[in-house]
């Protein structure tokens, strides 16, 4: 049993805080690595992202229905296709409709509060549930080892300060909260004795929630130590979470009385937001599986059945939640999004269902959404086959980059760091102009130095700026002070800090105002890859020949991938430098001059991305 399976089977037993019978996990440790990196610099942004996970792979073609592809769909899935007279029409589009069970989301769409994004996936999608979820949660579309699930990688991350120092005066609230105990594929049921010498579930509950003795020196003991840490971390936030929950009563009358645990989870989220909890990321889980291989619909009545019931729960829950936060006066600070690890095949199978497929729609909802449809109906063949897929239109990392930059106050540089590459944003949000104040910090490596660039808005308010550094993201030390001698209202400053020996290095700027008060920039995190760096030249590339020079000799297979701006894979090769520091290879003449591409270099567990151009 790998670490992900262990934690997936024990998470239900470790929640120390219950709200209306729903377990609440809090703290950095509940986050997938991507969401943790996303939450850290946005904790003081004042905006909230609610992520709804639809486990199992949702059939997007029966949820967001391409009306202008109806003939092709009827050829591909005659027994599943919703009759055209039952499809919910949408204001402003004649090419897209919704499943008839989603009347609430239809109404939100017609009021400009929903954006439907077509064809979301990534190049060469993976159809394993666990690995596809890992890809979505890490923002890296390479197949991870089966032994390194998202919580496993979180446990192994170089984050030496966690959980020490949290909560603290500056960060009294958790960076993320997971509502509900269900982790991906936990519907299989708890069974922790899957290869480890572990006690039975009842023994684990007693140990994890009571006053435990020393964990055994074994693989099981390592995992149990992490489970206990998660429980303790959630306990540390109990008073803040409980106080926020008690401070705000539910205001919407649209929540169903029973039978919809997603609505119950979102009701808790609304109360925490309304009660003043400053947590930027919430994760909730749809209670149903969307893995509809069998009996997706009722034969002869395709608008009913398993999938229809699941979509109805989603629509009812989102509608009630949006109504609740609107009545609380918080709608302008909250955006939600759905996702499932992949879609389904275009063609139906012989069991009145659909099998694992690629592209699928993503739903965004909220007051700040640019309402409408993003993308076009998927292009489908007239005579589809069992392998026909919904084509890729938007890489899911484009959506992440959009959320980071257009909603959660992250800079393009911060987004690029989190995603290990540059991805074009998508027009999902109203182009809200952020207030021009505060301090915006950018950081990057420049050889032996960390190069810091910070731009100060309302610069004339400040006397001095203190540059602070940390190796754990919690305990910062002063490394330099800069006196403000400029009278400009907007000013850029630059500083170089000598590289230090630490896996991760964090920087922030403390601006000291003339009245003695102060404010901080967001925190920027740099991964220290000094002994893993390489040089790519010439750049721009000439004669389609690329040189990759490593700092150290490499005697292992090196994977070389070139991606386009939309995330599409354009080139792949595996080469071995055979103990040399220089690897030279030639690529086909298919790259546009002056366009930006991403060269992805992977070897010995190291992954590096470089922006390249061709001439």
Structure report:
With 615 residues, the protein is α+β, with helices and mostly antiparallel strands. The chain has 3 domains: 3-419, no CATH class; 439-527, Immunoglobulins (Immunoglobulin-like); 531-612, Immunoglobulin-like. Helices cover 23% and strands 29% of the residues. It has 13 helices and 30 strands. Strands 1, 2, 3, 7, 8, 9, 10, 13, 14 and 15 form a 10-stranded mixed beta sheet that branches. Strand 29 and strand 30 (606-612) form a beta hairpin. The chain is globular.
Short description, anyone?
With 615 residues, the chain is of the alpha+beta class. The chain is 23% helix and 29% strand. A hairpin with a 2-residue loop joins strand 1 (17-19) and strand 2.
Descriptive tags:
615 residues, alpha+beta, Immunoglobulin-like, 3 domains, 10-stranded mixed beta sheet, 5-stranded antiparallel beta sheet, 30 strands, globular
Q: State the share of residues found in helices, binned by percent.
A: 10-25%
Largest sheet: 10 strands, mixed
User: Beta-strand level of the residues, as a percent range?
Assistant: 25-35%
Overall geometry comes to globular
Which stretches are poorly predicted, pLDDT < 50 over at least 5 residues? 1-16, 144-163, 181-212, 216-220, 432-436
Total beta-strand segments? 30
Mean pLDDT figure: 78
Number of self-contained structural domains: 3
Taking all Cα atoms into account, the compactness measure Rg is 25 Å
Structural class given helices, strands, pairing? alpha+beta
Task: Kindly report how far apart the N and C termini lie.
Answer: 50 Å
Number of helices: 13
């Amino acid at each position: 049993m790998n670490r992900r399976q262990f934690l997936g089977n024990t998470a239900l037993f470790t929640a120390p805080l219950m709200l209306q019978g729903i377990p609440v996990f809090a703290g950095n440790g509940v986050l997938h690595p991507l969401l943790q990196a996303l939450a850290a610099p946005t904790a003081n942004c004042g905006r909230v992202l609610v992520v709804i996970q639809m486990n199992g792979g949702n059939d997007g073609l029966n949820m967001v229905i391409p009306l202008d592809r109806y003939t092709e769909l009827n050829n591909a899935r005659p027994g599943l296709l919703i009759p055209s007279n039952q499809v919910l029409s949408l204001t402003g589009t004649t090419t897209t409709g919704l499943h008839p069970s989603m009347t609430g989301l239809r109404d939100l769409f017609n009021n400009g509060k929903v954006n439907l994004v077509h064809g979301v996936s990534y190049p060469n999608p993976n159809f394993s549930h666990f690995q596809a979820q890992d890809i979505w949660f890490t923002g890296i579309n390479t197949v991870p080892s089966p032994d390194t699930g998202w919580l496993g990688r979180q446990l192994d991350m170089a984050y030496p300060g966690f959980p020490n120092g949290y909560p603290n005066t500056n960060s009294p609230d958790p960076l993320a909260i997971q509502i509900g105990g269900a982790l991906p594929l936990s519907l299989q049921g708890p069974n922790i004795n899957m290869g480890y010498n572990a006690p039975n579930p009842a023994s684990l509950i007693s140990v994890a929630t009571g006053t435990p003795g020393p964990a055994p020196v074994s693989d099981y003991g390592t995992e149990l130590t992490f489970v206990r840490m998660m429980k303790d971390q959630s306990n540390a936030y109990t008073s803040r979470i409980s106080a926020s929950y008690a401070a705000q009563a539910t205001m919407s009358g649209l929540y169903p009385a029973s039978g919809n645990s997603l609505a119950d989870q979102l009701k808790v989220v609304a109360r925490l937001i309304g009660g003043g909890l400053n947590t930027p990321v919430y994760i909730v889980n749809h209670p149903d599986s969307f893995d509809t291989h069998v009996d997706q619909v009722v034969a002869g009545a395709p608008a009913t059945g398993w999938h229809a019931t699941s979509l109805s729960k989603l629509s009812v829950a989102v509608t009630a939640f949006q109504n609740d936060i609107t009545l609380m006066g918080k709608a302008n600070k909250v955006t939600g999004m759905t996702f499932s690890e992949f879609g389904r095949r275009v063609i139906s199978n012989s069991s009145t269902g659909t099998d694992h497929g690629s592209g699928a729609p993503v739903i965004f909802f909220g007051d700040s959404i640019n309402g409408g449809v993003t993308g076009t109906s998927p292009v489908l063949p007239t005579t589809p086959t069992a392998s026909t897929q919904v084509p890729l239109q938007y890489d899911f990392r484009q959506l992440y980059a959009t959320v980071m930059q257009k909603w959660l106050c992250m800079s393009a540089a911060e987004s690029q760091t989190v995603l290990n590459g540059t991805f074009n944003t998508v027009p999902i949000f109203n182009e809200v102009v952020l207030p021009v104040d505060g301090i915006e910090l950018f950081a990057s490596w420049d050889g032996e130095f960390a190069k810091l660039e910070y731009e100060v808005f309302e610069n004339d308010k400040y006397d001095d700026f203190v540059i602070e550094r940390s190796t754990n993201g919690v305990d910062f030390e002063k490394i330099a002070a800069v006196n403000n001698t400029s009278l400009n209202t907007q000013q850029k400053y630059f500083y170089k800090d000598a590289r230090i020996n630490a896996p991760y290095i964090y920087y922030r700027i403390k601006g000291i105002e003339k009245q003695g008060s102060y404010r901080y920039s967001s925190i920027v995190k740099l991964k220290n890859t000094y002994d893993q760096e390489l040089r790519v030249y010439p750049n721009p590339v000439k004669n389609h020949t690329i040189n990759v020079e490593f700092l150290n000799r490499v005697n292992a297979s090196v994977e070389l991938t070139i991606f386009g701006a939309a995330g599409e894979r354009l080139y792949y090769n595996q080469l071995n430098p055979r103990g040399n520091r220089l690897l030279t290879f030639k690529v086909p003449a298919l790259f546009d001059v002056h366009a930006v591409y991403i060269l992805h270099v992977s070897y010995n567990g190291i992954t590096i991305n470089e922006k390249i151009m061709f001439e």
